């Protein structure tokens, strides 16, 4: 039991530190790094092959992924967007089959573990409806850490894309 409490405290501390760092980003850096992230995603074969894609509506601290939405529209790919304020999967209109889902995070490990905002929405979605989808974590390079605290319910990403690399 104590390990779980330690992990929760570590996660909370890491969330606070990462959110501070995200708030310190300039608008120009966010835009520039976001363009790099979108370019890397657009080059992925998994992206090109996906016919049912789930994107997220980014919070002000998250990468801007509008080029990916535009690419879906241009290729006539089914694209659902998870709004910023969603609390429950029942609030969404998702396709039955999901090929690829973009997942934001506060931090990711080099081993593709994800630290979310703490509400558990993405964990529930990724363990349920999107369990068979290719899970693509999206973040800025400074959000990729050597390791992050993990718990049993945390879902591993299939890949993580930042402005500097795909891992």
Structural overview:
The structure is a single chain. This protein is an alpha/beta fold. The protein has helices at residues 2-23, 27-42, 45-49, 66-75, 121-127; strands at residues 52-56, 78-82, 100-104, 107-109, 114-115, 134-138, 144-145, 159-161. It has a 5-stranded parallel β-sheet. Strands 5-4-7 form a 3-stranded mixed β-sheet, with helices on one face. The chain is globular, with a radius of gyration of 15 Å. It starts with a helix and ends in a 6-residue tail after the last strand. The model has no long low-confidence stretch (mean pLDDT 92).
- Give the termini distance in whole angstroms: 32 Å
Number of strands: 8
Number of helices: 5
Instruction: Give the radius of gyration.
Output: 15 Å
Mean pLDDT: 92
Mass-distribution shape: globular
H/E series, N to C?
HHHEHEEEEHEEE
Helix- and strand-based class? alpha/beta
Strand content: 15-25%
- The poorly predicted ranges are none
Biggest sheet layout: 5 strands, parallel
Structure characteristics:
36% helix, 3-stranded mixed sheet, 18% strand, 5 helices, 5-stranded parallel sheet, alpha/beta, 167 residues
Outline the secondary-structure elements.
Blueprint: H1 2-23, H2 27-42, H3 45-49, E1 52-56, H4 66-75, E2 78-82, E3 100-104, E4 107-109, E5 114-115, H5 121-127, E6 134-138, E7 144-145, E8 159-161
Parallel strand pairs: 1-2, 1-3, 3-6, 4-7, 6-8
Antiparallel strand pairs: 4-5
Can you summarize this structure?
By secondary structure, this protein is an alpha/beta fold.
């Amino acid at each position: 039991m104590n390990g779980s409490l330690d992990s929760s405290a570590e996660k909370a501390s890491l969330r606070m530190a990462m959110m501070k760092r995200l708030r310190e980003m300039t608008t120009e850096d966010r835009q520039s790094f976001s363009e790099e992230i979108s370019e890397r995603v657009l080059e992925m074969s998994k992206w090109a092959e996906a016919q049912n894609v789930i994107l997220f509506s980014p919070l002000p601290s998250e990468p801007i992924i509008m080029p990916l939405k535009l690419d879906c529209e241009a290729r006539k790919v089914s694209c659902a967007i998870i709004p910023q304020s969603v609390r429950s999967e029942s609030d969404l209109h998702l396709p039955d089959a999901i090929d690829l889902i973009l997942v934001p995070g506060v931090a990711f490990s080099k081993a593709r573990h994800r630290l979310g905002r703490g509400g558990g929405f993405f964990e529930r979605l990724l363990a349920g409806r999107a369990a068979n989808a290719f899970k693509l974590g999206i973040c800025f390079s400074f959000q990729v850490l050597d390791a992050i605290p993990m718990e049993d319910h945390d879902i591993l990403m299939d890949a993580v894309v930042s402005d500097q690399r795909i891992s």
